[in-house]
């Protein structure tokens, strides 16, 4: 496929001449005058390479570079400077730039550097190969996760998965199991925070008849149920110290003793644990056993929160919509508008991927299975990003419930931002072009 390149430079002559050169080389090129415009482009479409000027009004190149890397954007970046110094180049490369050139640049040199950087990018097939069991992500942090899964899966090593709620810890655990020699055995997930403390011990280790009131027969526990396979202990940080002692013994001795029994039962189980807590802090607070921590922390995988890999949001949104297209009747034509996508990328996602999928599903229902617009998104998403300049139309931003003067002001602001281009203004407002025309006529605005 043709590579898509974004040129970000306030020097119009350089931007246009470079775009012409790169188009002659067969690339698709988009230009941006400043960091704000570049951010708008990045939030609505993917790019394979960025040419980024160091010094620009507003958000300068180095600040934008830092912002992109903090988002988890893995796009290759070639920094351009008209005032090149060694210190500037070193600073740019240290902050994550892939290469650095100083103006004036010979066309042959620029074309060569662009080709080299594009050659380093993984192919679509390589990206697909890096993904694991349907886990979506191309950000560098997720590529590291995929590599870790592939390396640890063939072993029988205990794994500790760290990550905030909703980041996909169980998906990673299942992927490790599926790629291991135990894949033919059971995968038994246990949410340690959702089972009452008095019942969790019996659930995990089983009990014998008469062990407690209601124990009318012998019952094997989940460790025995997972024999020959994998047990996934989610939210391990929520367990009590007394239960942690029994878990430690199960890991050390590879055997469990049912509640009320004397004789232990041997089990062949791989343990994968997960937590959204910092277990070292829990150890310091004497809420988690240090010896159990070291038994669990043999191989650690850290999952990044979604706000640290915003570049993956379009992929995740597409994955969510694809699932809805397959599972829900009437969603066959489901899509997402560029402005709605920018709002989704601007939101911080405290609930991570789980929250994103829920928001997309709800928006699809409001959109009637058609195109998701800004007004179809959850109120918490729209409210959270309404104050971010890059996500809306500044002080006149549109709200789904806006009426009268507020709505008229929002429409005027959008038209000004879009330089009078109604399709673009409608996109900014999250409404259809016909709806915009009707509202312009309603408010006495020029519709000619």
What does this structure look like?
- This protein is an alpha/beta fold.
- It folds into three domains: 4-121, Rossmann fold (3-Layer(aba) Sandwich), CATH 3.40.50.2300; 129-304, 3-Layer(aba) Sandwich (Rossmann fold), CATH 3.40.50.300; 308-442, Helicase, Ruva Protein, domain 3 (Orthogonal Bundle), CATH 1.10.8.60.
- Helices cover 46% and strands 13% of the residues.
- It has helices spanning 12-24, 35-44, 61-71, 86-94, 107-120, 124-130, 140-152, 169-178, 197-205, 222-225, 241-253, 279-284, 290-296, 313-327, 338-346, 352-366, 379-385, 404-417, 422-429, 433-442, and strands at 4-8, 28-32, 49-53, 77-81, 99-102, 159-162, 187-191, 206-207, 219-220, 230-234, 255-256, 265-266, 270-275, 299-302, 335-336, 371-372.
- Strands 2-1-3-4-5 form a five-stranded parallel sheet, with helices on both faces. The chain has a five-stranded parallel sheet with strand order 7-10-13-6-14.
- The longest helix has 15 residues, at 313-327.
- The chain is globular.
- The two termini are 40 Å apart.
- The model is unreliable at 389-401 (pLDDT under 50).
- One of its GO terms (biological process) is regulation of DNA-templated transcription.
- This is Sigma-54-dependent Fis family transcriptional regulator.
